[in-house]
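ESCALATION

Customer reports they have been waiting on this structure for their group meeting. Please prioritize. Original submission:
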Amino acid sequence: MKKVKFKIDSDSTKVYSGNYYIFDPENEQKVPIDSKVGKKVINNYENKLKGKPVKSVKKFYNKFTIVDIDESLMSDWYADISMLYFLLEQITSFKTVNNRNILNVNEGKRLRSMHFGLKKLFTGGYGECVSNEREPEIYNLVMDMKLKYFPGFCFNQILINKNQPFKKHKDGNNLKSNTLIFSIGDYEGDLHLEDWEVNTNCRPIIFNGKELEHSVPKISGTRYSILFYMI
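Update from on-call: job pushed to the front of the queue and completed.
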């Protein structure tokens, strides 16, 4: 069984086999950033970003990488995300939290979110998130998926959101800069990185959440987003 083909460089940029990749929205695929098509995409984004230099756009895409799941694991991947969606849909009353409701696009409403893994304690140190025991099937499945598809990614907390829009923000409280995210469901509206929408539906990506402003302005349909990060 082959491992997921990504690594994290010492400067926290994301690299595939030594090459940076950029998402080509026209053809819905990733291409090398230094290829002819990659340079064309950069130039197109340069124009859209209202005069920002090409170097700035390259720096932006160095913080955003599509995780390349090995072809031999793709059937397992789709089976696992289908099972995860099924389990999440069985929750009749999705849990809500208010510790970050300031980020909610819907002012004053609690976030439709669940945390798994570890949480910071007011007394210092870490403790187990309550959802680990409340939803053990989901917790075990997500942990298995992480070990199978993202074995080299460091994290200690998992966040699952349901149809939750977020205001623009940066993850200043995270210990490490990198966040891994993928989404599942039948929906419209997705993650925005610096105002540009990125397709995360069944497509895991890694981005620099501490430096890169991100949001989910609006959602229609059913969308679950699953995020791995270090607190």
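Sent to customer with the following note: The longest strand covers residues 178-188.
Escalation resolved.
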